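so im writing up the methods section and need the ABC transporter ATPase record in one place, dumping it here so i stop losing it
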Amino acid sequence: MLVEFNTISEEAKVWIYQANRSFSETELEEIKAKLADFITQWTAHGSDLQASFEIKYKRFIIIAVDQDTQAATGCSIDASVRFIQQLEKDYNVDLMDKMNVSYKQGEYIAYKDLKDFRKMAKDNAVTGKTIVFNNLVTTKADFLENWEVPASESWHGRFLN
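--- predicted struct ---
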C-alpha cells in the first residue's frame, strides 16, 4: 500500500539508491509512476507492505517500508532490488554501486568514485564541512537526521586529514 512519505513511521526501514547522474524531468515523472505502481503491488508473504518513496535532488531514490505494519521479507526485498535493477536498464543509469560518493558543491550534487573522493580529501579539495550523503542510514528518522551531513559527522570522515 502506497502512503505519503511524510506520514510513514519514523522507524520505517529505508533504502537509498543514488544515481550516477541527474534524471531529466521526463525521466523523473516516468520513474515516479513506476515506483508508485511497484509499491502499490509490493507484498511480503501475500500481505501488502505499507511503503513510500521520495526522489531527492533528481538523483536519489528513497524507498521506505513501515516494518511495524508488515515487515519486508527476503523475497520482497529481492523484488525491490530487481525493480531497481530494471530502472538501471531502462534509464542507462547506475543505482546500485555503493562505492561511490555524492556530496554538495554549493547547490550542485557531485558524484565521485570512492578512490577519487579519498584523493580529494587528501588534497583538501573536500573537508569536514563538505556536505555528504550518508546512504547507509537505515530508518526514516536516521534519514531525516543523518543523511545529509558534514563529512566529519559521517563514515566519510575517515578519509579526511
